[in-house]
Amino acid sequence: MPVAAQWMWRDAAGKPVFSDRPPPADIPDKNVLQRPSGAARAVAPAPAPAAATASAPAATATPTPAGGQDKELEQRRQQAEAAEAARQKAAQEVQARARADNCARARQNKASLDSGIRITRTNAQGEREFLDDAQRAAEASRTQEIIARDCAPGAQPR
Fold it and tell me: pTM of this prediction?
């Protein structure tokens, strides 16, 4: 990003000041050390006295930054918002795919449970165990809850 026009001057205490705006009117021309190329002495408006500030607050409102800065900041803000929206959309798509996958597996499991074939599981010791009627009913109920949650048209993420 190119640097905006730079001014450099020494303030009343002798300290160097860098700015993209010209120095205030009370800084003598001899204290201006650097001007932007092609810039004549443009004097910034002098600060308003306190009495004038109280009577006309709108007249002494802080000046807005250079038009290019406002546009650039607005563009960056819009880009950040667009990136956040894209990130959220991608996350929602990932969740939707996971729900669809869970739904397909649950429906397949439910079909197996409803078919009446004998179903086995492997226990902690690595042995096969057949599900009895109570275990099959509990598994069918659990599978039905998963189907209701993940297969609904407007299923919400967990």
Answer: 0.45
